[in-house]
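Q: Protein A?
A:
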Amino acid sequence: MATALFLLVGVVPLALAGGHDYGAALSKSILFFEAQRSGYLPGNQRVKWRGNSGLYDGKANGVDLVGGYYDAGDNVKFGLPMAFTVTMMSWSIIEYGNQIGASGELGHAMDAVKWGSDYLIKAHPQPHVLYGEVGDGNTDHFCWQRPEDMTTSRYAYRIDQNNPGSDLAGETASAMAAASIVFRRANPAYSRELLTHATQLFDFADKYRGKYDSSITVAQKYYRSVSGYADELLWAAAWMYKATNNEYYLDYLGENGDALGGTGWAMTEFGWDVKYAGVQTLVAKFLMGGKAGSHASVFGKYQEKAESFMCSCLGKSSQNVQKTPGGLIYKQRWNNLQFVTSASFLLTVYSDYLTSARKDLHCSSGSVAPSELLAFAKSQMDYILGDNPRATSYMVGYGNNYPQQVHHRGSSIVSVKVDPSFVSCRGGYATWFSRKASDPNLLTGAIVGGPDAYDNFADHRDNYEQTEPATYNNAPLLGVLARLHGGQGGYNQLLPVEVHVAKPIAAQPKPNPVKEAPFAAPVSIEQKTTTSWIANGKTYYRYSAIVTNKSGKTIKNLNLSVSKLYGPLWGLTKSPSGSYGFPTWVSSLPAGKSMEFVYIHSASPAEVSLSSYTLA
């Protein structure tokens, strides 16, 4: 019988008693980026366990490349995923800046974009020169050091006219163009600077074509461009049009849609490598917003492919995405959640585009209301935040049961602020990597790789496929969580949206809790269905059961009877007598506290009752 972590809470958490705290999740998801910062940290740095790092990046190449983000749990700065991260954070703000502002997080979100875009400006010192990597994965992964102690190579790798990289240049152009929209009102001069770089980079990507990992070969093992560069050229053109309204880029999309695959590829994934679903979604927006002009028929083909992606996620297409038994989109074992967050973002914005256009989604199984897309995106977020068979939150620091041994150098090694003693390259593996204990530094907001195809997850530091976080896992979350927290913006999302710099909203006083009437029994047990899915012709249900101590005393030796259970149960330990009690590491349930256990089967709720207990 499987056993999961036991949850002890002062009150039943929001995730269990009517929904998740998407506002708190949004704040944490943005805070994560501060833990990934490279360079000189600012005075308003909130992740205090980090220090300055990578202060000589680029020096060996005669260029200043200090700053930017470490991509994941290592200390390399990879340009392609970093640029995609900036693009997706910017797109989140462009679509849902009002909602992010209402949560008091717009300043932090814009700071997160600017930390990335400032670096991308440095990485583009000449019109046709772009630095795409600092450090290399092979030497970096040989060591386990916090970034403040790095002794590994910080050599920088670039693309240029003789060594092109249209995918890298195209994605960086997209990031610069999207960020220019974010800063158009708040910092017009900076916005124009970004747009100048974006224009040059698009020209570079288009005129000097080639895959970046053929020029920066050290990236092949880590961020190989499997899809090539055609998708990035279209993606960049879409962002350039969005940022400039220049018909040249609209024509580029119309005239190259067939040749570059935008109208042909029906995708079931979207991420740092494959951008087709993203550009198809943007072009569909242009079409529904009346911007297609003479390219309406071609843009219609883009939209067909965008809708194919949405339908495949919903399970209403002839080519559907795989899902776990718990209902999570599943693409691959290594860092699967990157695909979940990116797909959820596209579903969210497309739902709002359809609502603004007063249209439905058309799938092979029939018409689908826009609300259904948003509901599915919400189900994916809820799974990540804890509504899953393991009752595990895959966002570090959110909820009561989240990964404790994250595959992350900075998080897993004592802070340089606490112990400045040097951590050597291999010594870090011996002392910290192999340590079977929780991380000394909480990597708040990080979305780890996540569970496997069967909803299983092993919280071990060496399990990098499941416990390593990444910036591009988090970037799309800004938009999805802001939309779920703040609701629809009340405006037509097919029209241009201005990002206003809103002042943080003052915290509202919490209402006094409503006192409940005395409850006769010392323990209450409430069950509810949290999700369901169909597999092999059977409908499976995930049930959540909340056990609350209503007495004024601590409960010990709790024994529950669970009958008519036809599937796995998590969160209780089964005794030889057949009853269920606390996990072995928990001995009591204090007064007023609650615990959760979950189970899955293809039947009505199991019968759960109180067998015995003692009051301390």
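Q: Protein B?
A:
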Amino acid sequence: MGFRALQMVLLLLLWLNLNSHGGVAMHIPIGIQPLSNIAMHKAVLALHPSASIKANPSLLGEKGESVQWMTVDFEHPNASADDWVAVFSPAKFNASTYVPDFGTPAFLTPLLVSAPIKYKYANYSTSNYVTTGKGTLKFRLINQRYDFAFGLFSGGLSNPKLVAISSTIAFANPKAPLYPRLALGKSWDEMTVTWTSDYDISEAVPFIEWGLKGEPQTRSPAGTLTFTQSSMCGPPARTVGWREPGFFHTSFLKNLWPNQEYTYKLGHRLNSGSYVWSKIYSFKAPPFPGQNSLQRVIIFGDTGKAERDGSNEYQNYQPGALNTTDQLIKDLDNYDIVFHIGDMPYANGFLSQWDQFTEMVSPISSTVPYMVASGNHERDWPNSGSFYADADSGGECGVPAETMFYVPAENRAKYWYSVDYGMFHFCIADSEHDWREGTEQYKFIEKCLASADRQKQPWLIFAAHRVLGYSSNSWYAEQGSFEEPMGRSSLQKLWQKYRVDMAFYGHVHSYERTCQIYENICVNSETSHFSGIVNGTIHVVAGGGGSHLSAFTDLKTKWSIYKDYDFGFVKLTAFNHTSLLFEYKKSRDGKVYDSFTITREYMNVLACTIDSCEPTTLAT
């Protein structure tokens, strides 16, 4: 066995071992990816002549829908409480389709070569299933490019036995352009649109038809990217979690008129000369940098994804994901841009979950810029260049996130970037790459902070996934650092020097706000209204987007102003150059539970304070 094959075996065994113990090697507990609970390597074929499973309808999306509910009826003469029903896509999911590759040894060849995209226990909605042997389930399927089949299993998740298989189900147009994601471009007057389809450039030309609402539309071309199984760094992404991702198209809409409403639709011109279109969407163009107008920003992290049909949720893996998403959809008219600062679907190497995440957020991402940051569950994998050697990405090592979501970075494999939105200047760091003094990222962060014209953009925001500032999370407290180890030692002098207003983090699944702080000392006694000189930075943990909650320490910290063990998100509202409102809202009701205001003049930003004074001279 070669070195690569041996490495793959060891990583797969590590993955199986971690999941068999009900957790992973992370200092902040992250729960279990529900699909990883299925012992795929133990699955056996046990088709029963009297067992059956039928799904209706068999053809989905006949009117152009990308989502449809299914009714699944099944029978099993030897029914038990451990029986479960899974959805597989593509529909051929057994070993007949298996092609050994990437150094995987033959003895690891399973009956099932791909994980299901979701599952439910057979008695989920039929309480008498065990006694009658008959049950019915409702499943919500989205267009994920390939056909589907349902499997009825006995033996529970730990010893799965396939007893019945349904006929094939498919969408009418599985290749359709779907799930657009808006993002700001590298110029203030540029919007990018990224979407997913199954049209390769060899069979269709992708483009966007767009323009000012109600006026003649124009067309802009789109580039196309994808990734392959060999791009994955390890299991399960490279093995049972792999699924063909389709193609990702990005178009750059330039020379936008500030604040104007635009309409757009996704298009593909087929080789036959015919066209395939999406429905029509709309967005509002960004304001000119420094423009004095109402500007509203949403910030959160660690949402994950949840299934609206109840699938996969037996571990309460991301119980707040839909609450946060639905609250933001409900409030869509009252904010202008979203920053999701890492840990998006928690796919953890099961590639089907990325489609489900982009579908979940598409009502938001198709309407306002959906800016993202890299988290440990997107990037981290041993020996892959990530700062942390954890296996949290499940072998993805950043590839799906970097390909499916555009960010205006110079190199999307290094997920740090700056972006302007009206009176805001954002510096988005990548905590999964080294940020310490002397590194490439440190130089970027300083350049980004220094480039803010505070007369035009008074509100300077730093964000990263891991807590590089302050947190009362129980694990951080046990380490005695109250931060990610080595987090603020290099960066706090930059925050102070450039008078950063606020620093935002995810990773810890809760909400917390500090005082204005520098070097562990509150530099302002105010808690609800800040004015005058910028003496320090307010640090905010906003990681309660939806994944299971993280506990706080019982220790009392003087710098912690407000903590909340609940799901929620932050909203910033800049009224003008001198007045800003901060609000923390719970996802369950959208109400404000913590808030403060900042009022100040430009001269307050310029004023000298500790470790932020510009050099002066006595010369006249």
